[in-house]
């Protein structure tokens, strides 16, 4: 009974992205997006409430020019000074443990007080809610646990140690012994939940050393210092104290260098003074003994040369002693290097820079040791850099020593020549010249050292701090974090992203078909109609489907559209045999069959409905049949056709139930009796509707499909998966059918899973010929019964 002229399979129509549909997809679940945003904002609010606010204060230091000295052998004044490098180097000094620890000593650091609030605990510095007297405290080994205290009455209080958790009561003034500590609480504790703990200076190194250092402006000698802390007063106090200690530390370090130079000169002066006294006594005694007053002109010239050369040699020798001390510092310790005896003017500028680099690296290493272990990679890298710089310094020192040794050899050669000249003069004059030369040399060296000592003392007195405080730090009551606006904005964006992502995830993970555009994208089989979702609850017997409820509803009109389109299928047939099937059970093929039968009966069509699902049919419940006899009874020859046909006079429909479940349902449907039954019924009725078993589960429906004039494949919106859309094409290809059409059942208005493509019908062709509307855009137009009101039309009466 297949008619190849009834339906044509044409190529798929083109589908274009419809941005309005994309908007509808997301707008359909606007409350998901709103919910995600609200949840994100709530989390942001909780985060803000439980995150302690951080405050930042700032101050500025001006780096002074080089300390003025009386030494004319200073560095080259024409050398450009790089303040950026100096600020970085001084930043290491500011963050050094010596400066930080000295700064902490100026604060009241020994006891920290806290007040526990509803949400978080707040440090009370510098306020002291009650007075604690420390009687005895180990300098290192003492308990740093938190002690919680609370007033019980005017004379007693309770104390809980974080260490053991036991709660005990004490009187004010009692001596408490806990964790190598002896202390007493002297004043009454205010109402509230307070806590305190004991500290050492070292406990604040990490907190106080968190200083930001940068240039105030490009190529300026102004240093900007910032301190961030949860307590704004502590941040300002510690920053001011650090600046003060840094200025004092700079002066102490510079004076220490001058004092070392003075100490070195004094050690040399003591020895040379004795030699000068001895040389003077020897010269005087020699003059008296030999009754000599003056020397000849040649002897005086030789004596003058000899004393001058010896004096210069002694000066070079003293410089060599200073160089040797510098070399010992390089070889024997890791401390910063100090250049003694005003050697700055006598050594190369490269060596001065190398020593500056070495001191900076040593300071950096000291700072890093507060954060890393000695064998960690950052410390090892610094050790390698220090070793490389020390090697370069040693090479420069070696060159400097070679230069001084060459000068001393030169002076020795010159002295030897003068001594050779002296050896040619008479014996008494020769001895006198030696005594005179020795006396002059010692006096000149003594004078040289005395001038150096005086110069160093004047330099020490002239030393000023290398930096001056320009602006002090003041507490800031405006927190820099958490920044509420930024956190709320970020949370809102995260909420929006989660909302949109949730919608996309649900769509991505959903394998079900929801609209006709999705079907069109998956198959070339035409869609004959779209049946809207039934507006009310359907009982298990599907009795509502038998009579079209609310005939003016959108649902009723969608069923009529399928009925109208059926009249164009197999139009050359006076009567039509229509087989209705689906992929699996629960997709509404029986519901569609009953609705079509009811609508056809309403236009005075003679209709018979056959329940051909012999395995699990429920169609008999719609007509109130007990299903004791039916199609299986007829096919097995137990009953006649007249005995199995039930007439529903109310709706004007004839019905053949499935009957008892036979042991061989598939074989019965393949018999000649089933074929003859359809041939008998076709001339008697306008429409023969056959409700079959699902083709995706069993093959019972195949012989019926091949004998029918029209085959309807039911796809249920939200129930049928993507694979269902491919079954009609497979059936057409395998059995040579051209009369298959699709009915989309239970279509709703949920835009979440709708396709975001729009079919281009203007190009002609395609499968749009077989249906004219899904009525998705007309609900609420006021044309149908019980149209739902829009949410913004709450003011309208029903």
From TrEMBL:
It comes from the Bacteria. It is found in: Cell inner membrane. Residues 576-695 form the AAA domain. Pfam families: AAA_31, Wzz. It catalyses: L-tyrosyl-[protein] + ATP = O-phospho-L-tyrosyl-[protein] + ADP + H(+). Residues 16-107 form the Polysaccharide chain length determinant N-terminal domain. It is a multi-pass membrane protein. The chain crosses the membrane at residues 30-50, 487-506. Its EC number is 2.7.10.2. Its main location: membrane. One of its GO terms (molecular function) is non-membrane spanning protein tyrosine kinase activity. Keywords: ATP-binding, Cell inner membrane, Cell membrane, Kinase, Membrane, Nucleotide-binding, Transferase, Transmembrane, Transmembrane helix, Tyrosine-protein kinase. Belongs to the etk/wzc family. Belongs to the CpsD/CapB family. PANTHER family: FERRIC ENTEROBACTIN TRANSPORT PROTEIN FEPE, TYROSINE-PROTEIN KINASE. This is non-specific protein-tyrosine kinase. It comes from Pedobacter boryungensis.
